[in-house]
Structure formats: C-alpha cells, structure tokens
Amino acid sequence: MSDLRELYQEMILDHCKRPRNFHNLPDANRAADGFNRLCGDKLRVFVKLDDGIIKDIAFEGDGCCISKASSSMMTEALKGKTLDEAHKLFQQFHEVLTGPPDETPDAPELGKLAVFAGVREFPVRVKCATLAWHTLEAALKDEQKPVTTE
Ligand code: ZN
Predict the structure, then answer these.
(1) I need a labelling partner for 143 at 20 to 30 A (CA). Which of 6, 15, 28, 103 fits?
(2) What is the pLDDT of residues 73-107, one digit of tens each?
(3) What is the average per-residue pLDDT within 31-60?
(4) Where are the domains of the chain?
(5) What is the Å distance from ligand 1's center to 70 Cα?
(6) pLDDT tens digits, 126-142
C-alpha cells in the first residue's frame, strides 16, 4: 500500500498543478455545475456527446488539489468512452474510494484512477474526489440543477 500512497501523492500533485482538459468546450452539448460545500470545490464539466460516445470532455473551476486532479484524470479516462463504460468506471471508482483501507483495489479497468484508493485514508476527501463524477452524471442526464455532494 505504501507504493500506492507515493504514486497517489505524485499523481495528485501533477494533475493539480497541470490539470488536463482544463478549459471551456464551446461545442459541448452537455454541461453541469458541481459544488462541494464541505470543501468549497466548484467546477463545471463539459461533454460533447455524439451517438452515445464521449467525443470530448473538459472542465473548468476551482477547488482543492484532490478535486482538480480527480477532474483532470476523469476527463483523460473518459474521452472516447461510451456512456455505459463511463457509468461502469464511476461505479468502480466509487468502490475504490470507499473500500477497506488495507486492501489494494482490484480494478484493472480503472488504470491510473486506482491511485485514488489513497483517499480512503481521508474519508472527508471522498466528496472532493467524486465531485467531478457526480457532475458528469448530471451533465449526461442533462439536469439543469447545480449538483451538490450533500
Ligand atoms: Zn476539495
């Protein structure tokens, strides 16, 4: 678990300092806002959905390192995925975040996202890590209401 912890810290810092897909998406046909009151994380997720496939995805906003890194890595992981695949990844991601701390996650599909198992040690941060995903789900459902993590 200690290798995972190091990797976790490295990746979070990297994606926090240089978030990927961190911009507006003018030709997005789905978007939603997310807000994590607990921490103050605020973000907007843009999706260009075409024939059930996430052709492009980006985000804007401001928040703690974990929320930014999670958004950044989510957009990387989901580009080109189908809606079904996206939902499945979210489920697995959520399981990794909330699983027992002494267990290494067994979810090869998650790839790099598995490093978020490090968040298990900080339960209050789980909402920071899942905010982008909840916001994405709202965007895909085309809900107009802002999302909160409460
Ligand atoms: Zn946060």
Answers:
(1) 15
(2) 999 999 999 999 999 999 999 998 888 766 766 77
(3) 96
(4) 2-145
(5) 10
(6) 999 999 999 999 999 86
The alpha carbon of 89 and the centre of ligand 1 are apart by a number of angstroms equal to 21
- β-strand 30-36 against 147-148: which pairing, if any? parallel
**pLDDT for the residue numbered 101:** 66
Q: Calculate how far, in angstroms, residue 45's C-alpha sits from the geometric centre of ligand 1.
A: 16
Helix, strand or coil, per DSSP, at residue 110: helix
In the reported structure, the alpha carbon of residue 32 is separated from the centroid of ligand 1 by a whole-number distance in angstroms of 18
Checking if the pLDDT of 144 tops 60, the result is no
Q: What is the rounded distance in angstroms from the CA atom of residue 109 to the CA atom of residue 101? A: 20
User: Which CATH number is associated with domain 2-145?
Assistant: 3.90.1010.10
Query: Quick check: helix, strand or coil at residue 93?
Result: helix
* CA 52 to centroid of ligand 1, rounded, Å: 30
- The helix/strand/coil state of 35 is strand
The environment of the single-atom ion ligand 1, i.e. residues with CB closer than 5 A, is 39, 41, 64, 67, 128
Question: Residue 78 C-alpha to ligand 1 middle, in angstroms?
Answer: 21
Residue type, 1: M
Q: What is the mean pLDDT of the chain?
A: 90
